[in-house]
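Re: [ENG-882] Designed sequences occasionally contain unexpected residues at chain ends

Forwarding the minimal case from QA. Structure tokens:
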């Protein structure tokens, strides 16, 4: 398995290279964003380990460029930033996973193996359900070409439902992935589903977001 590590701290990059090679990976190194982007474009890598704070071109921009070019190599971002918005930015731009420094090397290897098992499946940069569209990068939602204004929590809820369209998702799943918590009152999901319906369905005479009694919620892939 071929891994590209893009990391400007040379001691860390060397340590990662030696450790991953000991695990049986073939590892190439890049020390700035421009070199990393170039190698990711021309190399047939199975996974990229990408630092965010890089010279010449940030990890965010490297990731954004690759996804814009429809290069779906799995990307694990590394960062000293541990804020939830920093993590959200990386994932919204197309990263597959995010690990904050300092990190456990055992966890890093486990996450890389998980990404390798998943593979580089083609993923759309804009989510669609009929005439309902959601762009994670620009954080825009439209219905039939009309822009729909959503709060950050409503946006996160819609994104999760659109990524699982035509599937029934439970309140507990939504709480885990949208609220990142199990101890939040489950009724908050029902409240926000109501908010979302009043923005993406009711004004347009649609019924895409359905309640499945006793099970959860389902967003119709055809947009209702």
């Amino acid at each position: 398995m071929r891994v590209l590590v893009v990391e400007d701290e040379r001691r860390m990059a060397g340590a990662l290279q030696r450790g991953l090679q000991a695990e049986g990976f073939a590892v190439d190194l890049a020390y700035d964003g421009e070199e990393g982007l170039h190698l990711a474009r021309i190399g047939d890598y199975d996974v990229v380990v990408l630092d965010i704070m890089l010279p010449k071109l940030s990890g965010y921009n490297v990731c954004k460029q690759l996804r814009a070019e429809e290069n779906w190599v799995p990307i694990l971002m590394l960062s000293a930033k541990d804020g939830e918005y920093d993590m959200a930015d990386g994932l919204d731009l197309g990263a597959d996973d995010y690990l904050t420094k300092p990190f456990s090397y055992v966890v890093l290897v486990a996450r890389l193996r998980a990404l390798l098992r998943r593979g580089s499946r083609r993923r759309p940069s804009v989510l669609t359900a009929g005439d309902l569209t959601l762009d994670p990068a620009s954080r825009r939602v439209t219905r039939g070409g009309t822009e729909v204004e959503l709060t950050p929590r409503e946006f996160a809820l819609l994104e999760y439902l659109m990524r699982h369209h035509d599937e029934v998702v439970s309140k507990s799943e939504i709480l885990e992935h949208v609220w990142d918590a199990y101890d939040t009152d489950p009724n908050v999901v029902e409240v926000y589903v109501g908010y979302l319906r009043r923005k993406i369905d009711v004004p347009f005479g649609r019924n895409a977001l359905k309640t499945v009694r006793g099970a959860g919620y389902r967003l119709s892939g055809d947009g209702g």
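QA comment: On inspection the terminal residues look reasonable. The mean pLDDT is 85. Proposing we downgrade this to a documentation issue.
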